[in-house]
Design brief:
single chain, 503 residues, alpha/beta, Rossmann fold, 3 domains, 4-stranded parallel β-sheet, two-stranded antiparallel ribbon, 15 helices, globular
């Protein structure tokens, strides 16, 4: 009998391993699908936090021989319980539609620090040896162990949410301008983990019904067809946008969603005036939302501007040799001055000269640039006149360094909406709703819109939306977050297509 060819034998391991690989993919898909579900995510996060905090407390004590005492072991056993209560006693940022490792780190440090303080107080009661040393070790080990584990979990969940195959089917009640915006936002950013599957509205706007300018999302019927639409589409979340139905019908829909086991979210009325400072009170059984608007003239912004100038002064001193070298290189490699000045509009509509290192050759003005409708200016406008050095300066954001002088002068802030040229300010004021709101605060070198990818010739309406969110929800912690995200973007050395603006 003739033996089978060698190729046949070589193929056997592949065929035998294929089911294993398929099983592995299925298990990975099952795990990622579970981590997307809110309840499974909460349970997974709780178990991982408890495990890592316990390991951290054990390592903190048993890795130090001088801490092997009964009271210290008792504190090591209590510490994870106190920390887990601090982490999970109330809803935190990890339960939002979108979260980040930065959010996770903030939550983890706050909870572990609170647990460490309580542990130190308990240590004095039980007479533990070296209470300060023990507390510091518990704090440090918990931050490293639990922080890294939570960061990995958040990263895995973010990847799972970005997988369209795992996205949660979502119905939108209300096919108006707000419903259209909801579909646009969740369609263009898969990190929300939502997939719009249909509108419900008895009287939809014609442009929404036509589906022009967005992914096709059908209108499945009137608001009263909610139960049928959920069964038909398999929707697991409903977003209530604005529709013509009365408020009592909306309340009935929320109850119907709860009975169907479907998650429900709603866009609140007067959403333009609601920010993170709003507080929920009650008048008897009547909820009362108290609004606390941002005050750009208040003391908090005075602190922000003082910090801006201090940081700008220190940064200018430290960067002076580098800036001098860049200026000399610009003058040596192309004719013209080292600095580029351009008129921009800042706070309260005041004009100032924005400073940047020159990255282009001098132009003759022959190529007129026509801004596309609906876009903000920026990037390469007209003929590409960038020098080789200028291209590097833009990719590394070093051309922005002279704006620290604008910050020191008080024309700008480190963080804020990007300033625009007078001719575009006049145009956008008449074309874009709430564009003028950006002039309540100082313009910034970087901003909330920029760190969300709205650089160059991108949608001006989207940029205004993000910038106004920043103004309404401003805090020093938000500024620090934007600076951290900006540094992360710079280190990636993204190309010029991702730059904020051009000369």
């Amino acid at each position: 009998m003739t033996p089978p060819p060698a190729a046949t034998h070589a193929a056997q391991p592949t065929s035998l391993s294929a089911p294993s690989r398929t099983l592995g993919r299925d298990l990975a898909g099952l795990l990622t699908a579970h981590i997307v579900e809110p309840r499974m995510w909460a349970r997974t996060r709780f178990l991982v936090d408890l495990l890592m905090l316990t390991l951290a407390a054990s390592a903190a004590v048993f890795a130090a021989p001088d801490l092997h005492t009964g009271p210290n072991r008792l504190l090591a056993a209590v510490f994870p319980l106190v920390a887990i209560v601090s982490l999970h006693a109330r809803r935190n940022r990890d339960e939002r539609l979108q979260t980040s490792i930065l959010d996770t780190g903030t939550v983890m440090i706050g909870a572990v620090s609170s647990a460490a303080i309580l542990t130190m107080a308990l240590a004095t009661v039980v007479g533990a040896a070296h209470p300060i040393g023990l507390t510091l070790r518990l704090w440090l080990f918990a931050i490293v162990y639990a922080g890294v584990a939570r960061a990995v979990l958040v990263s895995v969940r973010a990847q799972a949410l970005s997988n369209r195959a795992l996205a949660v089917p979502t119905l939108i009640v209300g096919a108006g301008s707000v419903g259209e915006l909801v579909v646009k936002r969740i369609s263009e950013d898969p990190r929300y983990g939502l997939q719009p599957v249909g509108f419900l509205d008895a009287d939809p706007m014609p442009i929404v019904a036509s589906g022009v300018g967005r992914p096709a999302v059908p209108i499945l019927g009137a608001e009263s067809d909610l139960g049928t639409a959920v069964a038909r589409t398999g929707a697991r979340r409903v977003i209530l946008a604005f529709s013509s139905q009365p408020d009592h019908a909306v309340v009935d829909q929320i109850r119907e969603c709860q009975q169907l086991g479907v998650g429900v979210s709603l866009v609140p009325r007067l959403f333009e005036s609601i920010n993170g400072r709003a507080t929920l009170d009650h008048l008897g059984g009547l909820p009362l939302l108290s609004l606390r608007p941002t005050d750009p003239r208040g003391w908090q912004f005075a602190v922000k501007h003082t910090l801006d100038r201090t940081v700008a002064l220190v940064a200018l001193i430290m960067a002076a040799p580098l800036m001098a070298a860049i200026a000399i290189a610009i003058r040596a490699t192309s004719p013209g001055g080292a600095l580029f000045r351009q008129r921009r509009i800042g706070r309260d509509g005041r004009a100032f000269d924005l400073l940047k290192f020159r990255t282009m050759r001098e132009g003759d003005g022959a190529d007129a640039f026509q801004l596309p409708s609906g876009c903000a200016p920026g990037g390469v406008e007209g003929h590409d006149r960038r020098t080789r050095l200028g291209l590097f300066l833009r990719e590394s954001s070093l051309d922005e360094l002279p704006q620290l002088i604008n910050v020191l002068r008080g024309d700008m802030s480190l963080v804020g909406p990007r300033p625009e040229r007078p001719e575009f300010v006049e145009r956008f004021t008449s074309e874009v709703n709430r564009y003028q709101d950006r002039h309540r605060v100082k313009s910034g070198i970087t901003g909330w819109a920029q760190v969300h990818g709205l650089r160059g010739q991108t949608s001006i309406a989207d940029r205004v939306e993000w910038d106004n969110y920043y103004i309404q929800n401003w805090s020093l912690s938000l500024d620090l977050r934007i600076i951290a995200l900006t540094i992360a973007e710079i280190l990636r050395l993204r190309g010029d297509e991702a730059r904020p603006d051009s000369q």
